[in-house]
């Protein structure tokens, strides 16, 4: 029977494939040994004594950024003998819950949402940080930052990387050619927009399409404007549900954002009308700036990596960013941003050692030197930050006048902050009125 | 795909009145119908075709223009494939995840095939008490969504089974590439109800005279199973094999949870999901990545497809 023979071949192929797979995996797991006596290891002395131990880290960081992470703690691994095993996944938020519930939690997780962190603290899964780690964190971070990982007076995570969201991207070249100057107040910003609109170019471009997360760039807009019109106290009440989501103060901020986002005269340079915002992907939304079809694009510092290859990101280059101006500069300098927190699901000594190390000045400088990264850590030396936008961000974060606030949608319960708020913003862009949208979101916050 | 048309016609003929059925059949076989089905097939293929063209275009072209501009301004490069297959660092290396995918898929197809054919034979041709209830229970298990089993199964692997404080089964405590065993176990569990159902329907249709004759000649159950049943059910085995192969190869969820995302065990799909980078700015890689991962299922499907339609129909008609 011909088929019997081919089935035999299939079985042989199967066994062969399996054998190949096993041998391919069997190699290349060499044991790390500690080189504690080397001179460059002096800085890691306090983390010694865990030779041969393994610490697993789970995060949403992947691809080239994950390579950079591995590179950033290489020396620490060599000196202490601790093997750090990092795994990044695009499904981090959903998977972390499944793994923790299934008793398969990682030792450390980089959690970008304080709301999610609190949920794990409430269910008793995250361990309070050790005394050494706490001392290190309090020394290197402002209370503004630590409060996001503090629950009932206890610290459950240390901040790691950060980004600054209050940026407007523009082209220094175009601005110079046309004689436009960078606005420093809200009124100047509107005046400039009108001027650009009158010259025939649409001044703004935006895009909120982002797969499952479509809508998030618009929530950043609302948060940034609310911080500017009402100040940090109202913002804090809003994110903790101290005032309702549809409070008149919030509605006022949304309408103010609408004077730019939903203004057909301003939007959407290079793409079409206001409605094209909902279908433009956030990765591409700023691209028309490089071709002169759009003048300004509000997006976070990490947008520096999204420009087409060959675009020079610098103060005298093709694109750069300015601080999203305050409505009344005398009332302080609110900054919207985000970042991730290192939380521990295990309290073994080597896990605490790694957690302490990640909060230290040695670590942040080692990571910053590799590029495209910054932190609110006070020990971060601005000279170690190669990228001009990141330099500007570090200046803003370290400026004592800065009032930093975390991205509100990450603080709210996930059903609101990563659910109805996103969807509401898509409806709002597509023409629904402010009151209906805000009432809908308020109704979903249980 | 073209074999489907006469099958539909035959089905109509069997149930409806002969005159009307013949008319329908005639119409379905006409030139216009063939033309329409060709047009539909072409329309359905266009997105895949566009992706295929895109995978050979340079990054800046992919990101700024549609794939159709390839015809007016052809720019050809193999850079995308080079990048996803062989580049160092975590931006590529699909080549090595390929092995992981094979190591997960092949046992995950063979285990359920072996268990299900044995179970199906026993349920169809061995008389024991409660046989029908066992069959009904297995049949009913098909409707349990696998998402419900993820957390309990993960607990089963990581903490074992404890009833009233007594440890009945220990934790598996697997590390690195040993985690393949968890994925095989999970895929086998999730596949068995459907596999048993499909093969049972097939095996129970075999003529009883055959079994009786064999038993008269002194053949035992293992002997009958090996020499009579197995050769006769190969179309069904192949059909289920393809089905299970495609499902496991394309699976992301089960692998992500039970194999983890480490480079020792993660299959192609897990890698593919991370290929675009933390903020999705390298999505041009997905074009080439998708075609790399499509190759194996295509080969499997094309080489075994003649059994696919036959096996599925034979198994399902009775159920």
UniProtKB/TrEMBL annotation, chain A:
Q: Which keywords has UniProt assigned to this entry?
A: Signal, Transport
User: What is the top-level taxon of the source organism?
Assistant: Bacteria
As given in the record, the signal peptide range reads 1-24
The record ties this protein, via InterPro entries, to: Bact_solute-bd_prot1, SBP
The answer to whether keyword Transport applies is yes
Family of the protein in this entry: Belongs to the bacterial solute-binding protein 1 family.
**Protein name per Swiss-Prot or TrEMBL:** Carbohydrate ABC transporter substrate-binding protein, CUT1 family
UniProtKB/TrEMBL annotation, chain B:
Family to which this protein belongs: Belongs to the binding-protein-dependent transport system permease family.
Q: What is its main location?
A: membrane
- Know the name of this protein? Carbohydrate ABC transporter membrane protein 2, CUT1 family
Q: Where is the ABC transmembrane type-1 domain?
A: 98-304
Q: Where are the transmembrane segments?
A: 33-53, 97-126, 133-154, 184-203, 224-249, 288-309
Subcellular location(s): the record lists: Cell membrane
Note the SUPFAM superfamilies from the entry: MetI-like
Query: Is the keyword Cell membrane assigned to this protein?
Result: yes
Q: Which CDD domains match?
A: TM_PBP2 (cd06261)
Q: Enumerate the UniProt keywords alphabetically.
A: Cell membrane, Membrane, Transmembrane, Transmembrane helix, Transport
Cellular component terms, GO, for this chain's entry?
plasma membrane
Query: How does the entry describe its membrane topology?
Result: Multi-pass membrane protein
Q: Which PANTHER family match?
A: ABC TRANSPORTER PERMEASE PROTEIN MG189-RELATED-RELATED, OSMOPROTECTIVE COMPOUNDS UPTAKE PERMEASE PROTEIN GGTD
Superkingdom: Bacteria
User: What GO biological process, any one, is recorded here?
Assistant: transmembrane transport
